[in-house]
Design brief:
Elements (H helix, E strand, L loop, with lengths): L2 E5 L5 H17 L12 H9 L3 E6 L2 E10 L9 E2 L8 E8 L8 H15 L4 E6 L4 H9 L3 E8 L2 E9 L7
Parallel strand pairs: 5-6
Antiparallel strand pairs: 1-2, 2-3, 3-5, 4-7, 6-8, 7-8
Length: 173
Amino acid sequence: MNCEFRQARPADMEMIWTIIDYAIRKRKAEGSDQWQDGYPNPQVIENDIMQNAGFVLVQDGSIAAYAAIVKNQEPAYEKIQGKWLTDGDFLVVHRIAVSSEHGGGGIAGKIMGFAEAMALRQGIYSVKADTNYDNAAMLRTFDKRGYKYCGEIQIRGQFRMAFEKELAYIHGS
């Protein structure tokens, strides 16, 4: 299986939105209120792309998933009810969405792995993320990848579970 993780391009927008829209509908069908408030929307994704924060996972030539990855940019994380593992620089992963054709194949875990490698290449030793309490797929992904529950944060009026993985410094990396 050929897999590439790269920055999203404006030309990817239609496929990215198809994936995001599928994820929104899937969360609703599961009875969740996550992503049921008009967020994310096409403008959010376009902004991610324009700020070089949007990334796609391309598998066998087609876009299989989308995520936004930014450095130190999540104001809600400053007001955690709990405690982060680290206080330094971090990458944050948001808006992970997997296409209907690729669900259940460990794609979200691959995205988290790419984010971790990206962090290490930048000399950053922490990756943070959050999710709804009822997002079983992401909770499993965080558990499998060794993320630790750190507390609650509030985004757009909703409490969410916050996780962090402290990355080990590997000499020569």
